[in-house]
Design brief:
three-stranded parallel sheet; transferase
Length: 143
């Protein structure tokens, strides 16, 4: 979890290179197919072959925390059956909170968990966000 530009995607990819894991995206906007540029969605090359769920999967513009919850439960169970661990990555805390706090699914009682909040120095974050905005503008100018 963390703000845009703090390195959540990079950290998750680094973790998957050391452990058997697959990634579930929890960002509310990156779930949509059509928003690759404006959401700074991780590129195919940046994924480094790591499986990502709920990243650019949805066409419907009304994907709520409840929808995320239902899909994520299916993905979590599926990932665990393959002897991998799911990493839930993104800045939309309400999506993550819905999974963790659900009284029926009981995530926090069923699974050992580790929550990592990414944070960076404000000047470093500003530089990163400025770079991201410049990259988005350049990509949009070629459309």
């Amino acid at each position: 979890m963390g703000a845009k530009g703090t390195g959540k995607s990079r950290l998750s990819i680094d973790l998957t290179t050391h452990f058997r894991e697959e990634i579930i995206n929890s960002d509310k906007m990156q779930v949509y197919k059509e928003l690759d540029i404006v959401t700074s969605k991780i590129t195919h090359a940046e994924k480094q072959g790591v499986r990502h769920y709920l990243l650019g999967e949805m066409k419907d513009s009304d994907f709520k925390a409840e929808d995320f919850f239902l899909k994520s439960i299916l993905y979590i169970e599926s990932i665990l059956k393959t002897q991998c661990a799911p990493i839930i990555v993104g800045g939309s805390n309400s999506n993550i909170e819905k999974i963790v706090e659900d009284p029926v699914f009981m995530f926090k009682y069923k699974y050992d968990s580790c929550f990592i909040w990414t944070d960076v120095d404000q000047s470093a974050l500003n530089r990163r966000v400025y770079t991201m905005v410049d990259e988005m503008v350049n990509k949009l100018s070629f459309l």
